[in-house]
UniProtKB/TrEMBL annotation:
Residues 225-245 are annotated as: Disordered. GO terms for cellular component: cytosol; ribonucleoprotein complex. Residues 40-221 form the Tr-type G domain. Transmembrane segments: none annotated. This is Elongation factor-like 1. It comes from Ceratopteris richardii. PANTHER family: ELONGATION FACTOR-LIKE GTPASE 1, TRANSLATION ELONGATION FACTOR-RELATED. GO terms for biological process: cytosolic ribosome assembly. One of its GO terms (molecular function) is GTPase activity.
């Protein structure tokens, strides 16, 4: 039925020219005054794709066409204009995103080229944040790869409208030798794949929307139920409508077919208009029929569907689009024998091609000359960008929700504050370019350029004062480099010389100018339009444009929100696909250069959006990068630009985590005294008992993923009064705290069924209930107060039974109860402040020791007992009892031991709070060691493509590196295999190099940080059971297992003691029988 309808529509259009409008025409190009609104002619776009799919090559052609003579068309595709760093040219990969302003038929197109290598994925985030549209490239020969997924997700998260570019179509003809029909099937396959990816994002969003609505419904009273249901069903239906449309459809004009290398590309509308007159059909009808299962019957001059075609005809896309392309390529590749055919084609297309090019010996040059004149790629791309991608006004109306997600404003605030906040938000939403509107800009990264490259002249050609002097007067470090902010103005107008607030992500706009801690005032020293490496000075830049800002280097570390009013929410932070995991320690070759290195590191930290610079506990300078290529670039920059000294670089420091085995210790039972570890402080006044158990893994995951949100809920702005806050948050339609709460509860429940599959379900039910109940007792999270470990307050059972404080009078012994602060903030329990009898000194002291217990917990979770790495997924229950007199001592003895009488805080063992802290730490460590500790390692998701003949070698390399292969797939139509595997980060160093060497450069991997995984080996294994003893003997000859080796390596690196067998009297084995 559906098919039939489609056929009929097409026919109607064919015969009656039914005026179907398929392009999204440029709307509302005029403003009220009748003048054209310049903002309507701006497009901010980025190019996104997997590595090597041809982004920079495509950018070259766009620059050649719209860059006002910056690049000669002959150089396009060869120069890679935006890869202006020497290492980018050398390695032929892009390492940073860079922007250029182009012109096309009165439109300003700000183009950002981004890197495809996963190490530089942060640059994709910065590019997407500033763009409204994205060109997503797919190499049709390689197909969809992991970074294609990643960039589509990034575009989706940032609410950037994507368009699709099928690139490298020439490879289907020349390399894969496909027929047009085969090529069509392949293109269709990729299109389906890409659309499916977007559909999964849609359904994820749909599910999470429904979840949050259901969450509210659960909380809401019965009376509100009906309203909710109605709301829900209306939401659902709108989603369904949206879902029915594919994100990319050639007939809707958002797909370009291209070959960036040869400089050609087209949308199907080009062929629709070409054939309209010839076939006597309307352009609109042809546009629909040129993609999909439509067939042209020459006799009847009708377009029909598959059934009516009789199975003999070729789809119209094959017949009318691909076949002519193939003909040109066939003729071109034949050299002189194809000349005649080529001339015919050229004539029929009415092209003028210089004879010099046509007679060139290299058929590639001839093909390029013909194709790039017939179907210029820049026209196809630019027209798509202008037709389909939104201008800043439309885009910002949509994207404002991403920038300022529904902030929970306390309605009790003053009306002026609320007005000011709403005004700023409205200005961003409408992309208000009135100079009187509040100016708001977002800086997505800082970048450094050598000072010599800064323009010497101002916007009006006037000579500028020497910037070096200006910088040194500002105290800017490193006068060789100048820091510019890569930004976009979202509302108002930014002027050179303007004073502006630099708001940090923690800024609380409801406090206005009083929130001095999170805002600084800077002066915009200079504004530049970016032209790749070059900069063009500007006097002012209005809303909707990209800009480089000079003068804010000292205020901004990596990103910031700029605003002329303090009543502006800081923009939501960007999301990054990976984390900086590759760490190395650095030191200058000459110790005297330490100062230069520290300065250089500071500059590097500012200039690179992703690198993390830190000082380790042992005093080493450590930098963390996303991967090997990123690290190499950072070190090169340090050596050559920022520090200018020789460096010694350590072997990679791999991060590990520590946990305990799940099997035996998933229970939260603190009642068993045998499972508790007891320690007493040195002065004997505080007894600490610790129980540790492993968190259900889903709970660990939620805690890890919600780090930012937890940070905000637990430690940030405007949440002064817990109870008020909870009441305020509840009942909000998008209640992040409520959502997190339900996620935590759900995680505590579902997981046990999976983790303890072998246990009886009834028991696991009880267990899971225990976990859910325990969520009401969260005292603290660690390490650094937001990590994936939980400190629980002692349960009621413990309170009454285990420690039995009632045996003695409460004046002698006080139980430290702890306050479940985290649970309180999350709204898991009511925070009732206990009425402490202030007169009781011991009770007051007990209360003051709570912070020491938390500090002890933070210390332990930051550095575990195996190799001082952070702990992961553990729940500690700490019971502490404070005694009036030290354990085992009479009151009189105690009095005698301290000279100044019974002063409880300071004694001969040092401050009491410190003693409690260390005892807690020791007890926690001991508890963990007693429960089968395990090492946790980071895993990469690894994708390798290799030709069949090198499959064996590739598996050899993967096997040696403990990789776990997930799937292998033959890529259709090629002899290439794609293998997906998990690989420990610790084993991944030099993988790309080794693979390339073993496969003569045919295989190269892409590594993306995936998850943390427990190594299922006991690092302290000694044979115990009969079978083990039989197999391994007494264990002395058992080689150390991987876990132990990794632990020892980390300990050695950190200078911690390592148990090693040292051969003391090694003698060379001699053959006794000697020849004399
Ligand atoms: N055959 C063919 N090769 C192409 C085409 N487009 C680009 N290439 C080649 O693909 C390689 C990579 O091109 P780039 O433009 O550097 O790719 P990229 O996507 O910018 O790569 P990264 O920035 O490193 O992610 C170069 O060798 C190009 O010559 C094409 O249409 N056909
Ligand atoms: Mg590139």
């Amino acid at each position: 039925m559906g098919q039939k309808e489609k056929e009929m529509n097409v026919e109607v259009c064919l015969h009656f020219d039914g005026g179907c409008v398929l392009h999204t025409a440029m709307t509302e190009a005029m403003d009220n005054s009748g003048l054209e609104d310049t903002r309507r002619r701006i497009r901010n776009i980025c190019i996104l794709a997997h590595v090597d799919h041809g982004k920079t090559t495509l950018a070259d052609h766009l620059i050649a066409a719209g860059g006002a003579g910056l690049l000669h068309p002959k150089q396009a595709g060869k120069l890679r204009f935006l890869d202006y760093r020497d290492d980018e040219q050398l390695r032929a990969i892009t390492m940073k995103s860079s922007s250029i302003a182009l012109n096309y038929q009165g439109h300003v197109i700000n183009l950002i080229d981004s890197p495809g290598h996963v190490d530089f994925c942060s640059e994709v985030s910065t590019a997407a944040r500033l763009s409204d549209g994205a060109l997503v490239l797919v190499d049709v020969c390689e197909g969809v790869h992991i970074q294609t997924h990643a960039v589509l997700r990034q575009a989706w998260i940032e609410k950037v409208t994507p368009c699709l570019v099928f690139n490298k179509i020439d490879r289907l003809i020349t390399e894969l030798k496909m027929s047009p029909a085969e090529a069509y099937t392949r293109l269709q396959g990729i299109l389906v794949q890409v659309n499916n990816i977007i559909n999964t994002f849609r359904s994820e969003k749909y599910l999470s929307d429904v979840d949050s609505i259901l969450g509210v419904a659960d909380n809401a009273s019965g009376a509100e139920d009906n309203v909710d249901t109605e709301f829900r069903s209306s939401q659902e239906s709108s989603h369904v409508e949206e879902d029915e449309k594919d994100a990319f459809a050639p007939d809707r004009g958002n797909v370009v077919f291209a070959c960036a290398l040869d400089g050609w590309g087209f949308r199907i509308n080009h062929f629709a208009s070409l054939y309209a007159a010839k076939l006597g059909a309307s352009e609109a009808a042809l546009q629909r029929a040129l993609w999909g299962d439509y067939y042209y019957i020459p006799k009847t001059k009708k377009i029909v569907g598959k059934k009516a075609s009789g199975g003999k005809l070729k789809p119209m896309f094959v017949q009318f689009v691909l076949e002519p392309l193939w003909q040109v390529y066939d003729a071109g590749m034949q050299g002189s024998s194809g000349q005649e055919m080529l001339s015919k084609i050229i004539k029929s297309m009415n092209l003028s091609i210089p004879a010099r090019d046509l007679q060139h010996k290299d058929p590639k040059v001839v093909l390029q000359a013909v194709m790039s004149r017939w179907l210029p790629i820049a026209n196809a791309i630019f027209s798509m960008v202008c037709d389909v991608l939104p201008d800043p006004i439309n885009a910002q109306a949509d994207r404002v929700l991403r920038f300022f997600p529904d902030e929970n404003v306390n309605e009790n605030l003053q009306a002026e504050v609320l007005m000011a906040l709403a005004k700023t938000k409205q200005a961003v939403k409408t992309c208000d370019n009135d100079p009187k509107a509040p100016c708001v800009a977002f800086v997505s990264k800082m970048f450094a350029i050598p000072i010599d490259l800064l323009p010497q002249k101002g916007p009006n050609g006037e000579l500028l004062p020497d910037i070096r002097e200006e910088l040194s007067s500002l105290g800017d470090v490193g006068h060789r480099e100048c820091f510019l902010a890569f930004a976009r103005v979202f509302s108002g107008v930014l002027f050179a010389g303007q004073r502006i607030w630099v708001l940090s992500p923690l800024h609380d706009p409801t406090k206005g100018e009083h929130d001095r801690k999170h805002m600084q005032e800077g002066i915009v020293q200079g504004l530049y339009m970016m032209m790749g490496r070059g900069l063009e000075p500007k006097q002012s830049v209005s809303a909707g444009n990209l800009v480089a800002i000079r003068g804010l280097g000292q205020f901004i570390l990596k990103t910031a929100t700029l605003a002329t009013t303090p009543y502006c929410w800081p923009f939501q932070s960007m999301t990054f696909q990976a984390a900086p995991i590759m760490r190395v320690a650095l030191e200058p070759s000459d110790p005297a250069d330490l100062g230069a290195l520290t300065r250089g590191l500071r500059l590097l930290n500012r200039a690179d959006p992703f690198v993390e610079v830190s000082l380790s506990a042992t005093g080493e300078h450590v930098i963390a990068a996303a991967g090997e290529v990123h690290l190499e670039r950072c070190i090169k920059d340090l050596k050559e630009r920022f520090a200018k000294v020789d460096l010694e670089v350590s072997a990679p420091l791999v991060a590990f985590k520590e946990t305990i085995e799940m099997e035996k210790t998933g229970s939260l039972d603190t009642a068993k005294a045998s499972e508790m570890i007891e320690k007493t402080t040195a002065n004997g006044r505080c007894i600490i008992r610790v129980h540790v158990s492993k968190l259900p893994s889903a709970l660990t995951k939620v805690l890890e993923e919600s780090g930012d949100l937890l940070q905000r809920i637990l430690h940030e702005r405007g949440i002064e009064h817990d109870e008020d806050h909870r009441l305020f948050m509840e009942g909000k339609p998008q209640d992040p705290v409520g959502a997190l709460r339900s996620r935590l509860v759900a995680a505590a429940q579902i997981d046990l069924a999976e983790d303890n599959m072998r246990k009886i379900s009834r028991k696991s039910d009880i267990e899971s209930q225990k976990w859910v109940n325990s969520l009401e007792r969260i005292w603290s999270l660690g390490p650094r107060h937001v990590g994936p470990n939980i400190l629980l307050t002692p349960s009621k059972v413990a309170d009454n039974d285990t420690i039995k404080p009632s045996e003695q009078s409460s004046a002698e012994r006080v139980f430290i109860k702890g306050i479940p602060r985290v649970s309180g903030r999350l709204g898991m329990c009511n925070m009732t402040t206990t009425d402490v009898e202030q007169s009781n000194a011991l009770l007051i002291e007990a209360e003051s020791l709570e912070s020491s217990i938390i500090a002890g917990f933070q210390l332990t979770t930051a550095a575990g007992p195996l190799c001082e790495e952070p702990m992961w997924g553990l729940a500690f229950t700490i019971e502490a009892v404070l005694l009036a007199t030290p354990k085992g001592m009479q009151n009189d003895d105690f009095m005698r031991t301290s000279d100044n009488g019974p002063t409880p805080t300071v004694d001969q063992y040092g401050p009491f709070s410190g003693q409690v802290m260390t005892t807690v730490k020791e007890a926690c460590r001991a508890a963990m060691l007693a429960k089968s500790p395990r090492l946790v390692e980071a895993m990469y998701f690894c994708e390798v493509s290799t030709p069949t003949e090198f499959l064996g070698q590739m598996y050899g390399v993967l096997g040696k590196r403990r990789a776990r292969v997930l799937k292998e797939e033959m890529r259709e139509g090629t002899d290439m295999f794609t293998v997906h595997a998990y690989m420990p980060v610790a084993e991944s160093f030099g993988l790309a190099y080794e693979l390339r060497r073993k496969t003569s450069g045919a295989a190269s991997p892409q590594l993306v940080l995936s998850h943390w995984e427990e190594i299922p080996l006991d690092p302290f294994f000694v044979p115990r059971t009969e079978e083990e003893l039989e197999e391994f003997g007494d264990g002395s000859s058992v080689p150390q297992n991987t876990a132990r080796k990794l632990i020892d390596a980390v300990r050695r690196r950190k200078g911690l003691p390592v148990e090693e067998k040292v051969v003391q009297h090694a003698t060379k084995q001699r053959t006794l029988a000697r020849k004399v």
